[in-house]
Amino acid sequence: MRQTVEAPPPYQVARKYRRFDLQFPVCLSFPAGKSVREIDAVSKNVSIGGLLLRTDNRIPPRTRVSLTMHVQGPWFRRPVRLHGEGKVVRVEKLGPGAGFAIAVECTQSITEMDDHLSAAS
Questions:
Q1: Biggest CA pair distance of the chain
Q2: pLDDT in tens, 10-21
Q3: In this structure, what are the phi and psi dihedrals at residue 115, rounded to the nearest 5 degrees?
Q4: 55, 98 contact by CB (below 8 A)
Q5: Exposed, middle or buried: residue 34 (CB in 10 Å: 0-12, 13-18, 19+)?
Q6: Among 107, 102, 105, which Cα is nearest to 59's?
Q7: pLDDT: is 28 or 1 the higher one?
Q8: Residues 15, 47: contact at Cβ < 8 Å?
Q9: Which domains does the chain have, with CATH numbers?
Q10: Which of 52, 108, 121 is nearest to 82 (CA)?
Q11: How confident is the model at residue 120 (pLDDT cuts 50, 70, 90)?
């Protein structure tokens, strides 16, 4: 008897890294013409390879971004600021007035901001 193996639906993509449902404020900055634009977002999920964000602003795919995530909660002794670099790999409109889902692939590891600042000086 022959066995049939079904392929996963097209929307199921194998994940390279485990994702965590974490909602924290994120500030994105990116070049916009001759200036740098900053927008606020909220993380929906986070992995070591990237983040999925919700924001009211659209960012074009392939845009290089710097991000700062503000992590706080009862399990931390103090608020932590994380910094990373990446590029926008996917943008989805969430619906009327709901904003956009922005997927950012990390091109530089996310590190604690204090470490990032001391390394730069």
A1: 68
A2: 545 556 778 888
A3: -65, -40
A4: no
A5: exposed
A6: 102
A7: 28
A8: yes
A9: 25-116 (2.30.110.10)
A10: 108
A11: very low
Q: Torsion-angle region of residue 68: left (phi > 0), alpha (psi -120 to 50) or beta?
A: beta
**pLDDT tens sequence across 34-81:** 999 999 999 999 988 899 999 999 999 999 999 999 988 887 788 889
pTM: 0.76
Residue with tokens 């409109």: 93
CA-CA distance, 42 to 99, in Å (whole number)?
Answer: 11
R_g of the chain computed on alpha carbons: 17
What are 50's two structure tokens? Answer: 């990237």
Spatial contact of 82 and 112, defined as CB atoms under 8 Å apart: yes
Length of the chain: 121
Q: CB neighbours of 87 closer than 8 A, spacing ≥ 6?
A: 62, 63, 64, 65, 104, 105, 107
